[in-house]
Amino acid sequence: MRLQSLLQSIRRHHARIAARGARIRARRSSQTATVVEALEDRTLLSVITLLVDNELTILADANDSIRVSASGGQVLVEAGTASGPLNPVVLPC
């Protein structure tokens, strides 16, 4: 009889410890919030312009759109992605 009640007591003790651990883990997981931060678009254009001896060279990869225009002796080179707006490209001096 005593052995059985000792075993039952040990089982109840271990069950209480296991239940307490489960409650603590549940509380910790509910207190930890998952935060996701949206980042800005990091599309980088890969357009290179070279102006050497009045000759303009433009190098780009296959996904870039390029527009070259001239007005009043000024040359404007604009580049962008196929679906995005065109942005001025700074010519080196």
Describe what this molecule looks like in 3D:
By secondary structure, the chain is of the alpha+beta class. The protein has a domain at 47-88. The protein has one helix and five strands. The strands form two sheets. The chain has a three-stranded antiparallel β-sheet, with no helix packed on it. Strands 1-2 form a two-stranded antiparallel ribbon. Strand 4 and strand 5 (87-88) form a beta hairpin. It is rod-shaped and about 105 Å long. The mean pLDDT is 77.
Note the overall shape: rod-shaped
pLDDT < 50 runs, ≥5 residues: none
How many β-strand runs? 5
The helix-and-strand class reads alpha+beta
Distance between the termini: 99 Å
Q: Rounded to an integer, what's the Rg over CA atoms?
A: 35 Å
- Mean of all residue-level pLDDT scores: 77
> How many DSSP helices?
1
**Main sheet record:** 3 strands, antiparallel
| Percentage of residues in DSSP E strands | 25-35%
Strand order of the largest sheet: 3-4-5
Query: Level of helix content?
Result: 25-40%
Q: N-to-C SSE series?
A: HEEEEE
Fold blueprint:
Blueprint: H1 2-31, E1 47-52, E2 55-60, E3 64-71, E4 74-81, E5 87-88
Antiparallel strand pairs: 1-2, 3-4, 4-5
Question: Which descriptors apply to this entry?
Answer:
93 residues, alpha+beta, 3-stranded antiparallel beta sheet, two-stranded antiparallel sheet
Please outline what is shown here.
The protein has a domain at 47-88.
